[in-house]
Specification:
Shape: elongated
CATH architecture: Up-down Bundle
Helix content: over 70%
Bound molecules: hydroxy diiron-OXO moiety
Distance between the termini: 34 Å
Largest sheet: none
Number of strands: 0
Number of helices: 5
Low-confidence stretches: none
Number of domains: 1
Order of helices and strands: HHHHH
Structural class: mainly alpha
Radius of gyration: 17 Å
Mean pLDDT: 95
Length: about 170
């Protein structure tokens, strides 16, 4: 049986993953309607991945005798100051998600819930990838430096990044 405190921490993480999916979706719509089709495709795929992160947690909570919450999601920002702004927000968001996952892991150790601790290691590893990906993309954008031709190539190449990440 899940400790009440762990169930609450996992349900908060469920909300955060749902909110992540929502945020990526809003960014995908912005990208698609501002000429960044490659980026939109990357973001739509990522929104789906975040939904899977949420579902994986929900199933785990239920399997362990808890009850997963179905989160109420807040509206996400839908306007951005450019593609660099989008990825800057993604890096900030993913850094917050990492901190939240570390907090869940910490609570598991304190309460000696080694099963949930073990389950959460998948999320710990995933966050390393997510933050690295956001940094890599920001580096590429810094290289492009607002040049239209370079941004065109960036938007084309991000699809390959998506294919290698999947
Ligand atoms: Fe679920 O990894 Fe991003 O938020």
């Amino acid at each position: 049986m899940l400790h009440q405190q762990i169930q609450q921490a996992l349900n908060e993480q469920i909300t955060l993953e749902g909110q992540s999916s929502h945020a990526y979706l809003a960014m995908a719509v912005w990208a698609e309607t501002n000429g960044f089709d490659g980026t939109a495709s990357f973001l739509y795929t990522h929104a789906e991945e975040e939904r899977q992160h949420m579902l994986k947690l929900m199933r785990f909570v239920n399997e362990r005798g808890g009850v997963a919450c179905v989160p109420d999601l807040n509206a996400s920002a839908q306007t951005f100051d450019g593609i660099g702004h989008v990825f800057q927000l993604i890096l900030e968001h993913e850094t917050r998600v990492t901190a939240s996952i570390n907090d869940v892991v910490d609570q598991c150790l304190k309460l000696k819930d080694y099963t949930t601790h073990n389950f959460m290691q998948w999320y710990v590893a995933e966050q390393i990838e997510e933050e690295a990906m956001a940094r890599k993309i920001l580096d590429k954008l810094a290289l492009a430096g607002g040049d239209k031709g370079a941004l065109y190539l960036f938007d084309r190449d991000i699809m390959n990044l998506e294919a290698t990440h999947a």
